[in-house]
Amino acid sequence: MDNEYSLGAASAAELGSLTSGRIKFRHLQCFLAVTQFGSVQRAADSLSITQPAVSKTIAELESILGVRLFERGRRGAEPTREGRLFAPHAAACVGALREGVDELSRHGVEHPGTVSLSVLPTVAPALLPPTLAAFRAQWPRVSVKVWTGSNGQLLERLKSADTDLVVGRLSEPEGMVGMTFEQLYREPLTVVVRNDHPLVHESNVTASLLARFPIVVPPFGTLIRQSAESVLTAFGAQASSSLIETLSVSLGRALALHNDAVWFVPSSVVEHDIALKLLTRLPMPFASADEPIGLILRHDRAKSPALDSLIDAIRDVGREREVVRIGMK
């Protein structure tokens, strides 16, 4: 696809300088892939093309723009200052093109359009069912693509315009460049076991008692893991003791129900199982910090009626969750 792009409000002379090598979709696609993965080889793998093809395409783009976009070294390909400046505009072009295709599709019979979102796996089970029900009532023929993963992975998808929005956690300032974070609600941590677990009948859960069972926690480096380690320490257990680390809700649930595991998990993930008396909360030594969950968007996001409706539905469900959380205190 040889779609051409103009670089902002360029002068006639500047535009003329680009005519010898017009910017095409493949240039931006390769540039964003190398920016996302920090490696020409990994970018090539993600695009299902060869490494020399990616290198040649990047070289063409650098020649067209007259600047160096990456510094190549042992650690991979690092964007230069010019590369970092160009990245949000390249992502906006790719995002606008995809949105334009979707906009045209909405007027067809066979292809009604698609919106995409990326969400933390620990957030999706509680947030998405009511959100998507409300969205489908307004847009019954629009498809929704949903990706889950770690917060870092979700933000990378957003940066590279591979998703329209993220529902996740606020990252470090350098990781939020070009994006906005709108807090939806706060998510408390809870500790659960199956309803007939031996620990349910213990009046005082100690470190030695916990050590008899598998302990399932979020992966190291996540904010909710920090809360889990604080609770473990308050129980008297060593945070570095033998743990099962996973973000998978289905795995954590299976381990809790069938392997006698003690599961440290965001409260909303298990509220349905607690209501059905499949899981029960263990009393924690102290209240853990509530974690803010929010809506993350690019500053330059393309406007779309369907996407706006999806965002509104997410906001409505988020507000409802925050009202419930406050009412439980």
TrEMBL record:
Q: Which Pfam families match?
A: HTH_1 (PF00126), LysR_substrate (PF03466)
Keyword terms, alphabetized = DNA-binding, Transcription, Transcription regulation
> In its UniProt record, which GO terms are filed under biological process?
3,4-dihydroxybenzoate catabolic process; positive regulation of DNA-templated transcription
Q: Which residues form the HTH lysR-type domain?
A: 23-80
Q: What PROSITE patterns does the entry give?
A: HTH_LYSR
Molecular function via GO: DNA binding; DNA-binding transcription factor activity
Q: Which GO terms describe its cellular component?
A: cytosol
Provide the family line.
Belongs to the LysR transcriptional regulatory family.
Q: Which NCBIfam families does the record match to this protein?
A: TF_pcaQ (TIGR02424)
* PANTHER family, per the entry: HTH-TYPE TRANSCRIPTIONAL REGULATOR YBHD, NITROGEN ASSIMILATION TRANSCRIPTIONAL ACTIVATOR-RELATED
Q: What is this protein called?
A: LysR family transcriptional regulator YdcI
Source taxonomy: Bacteria, Pseudomonadati, Pseudomonadota, Betaproteobacteria, Burkholderiales
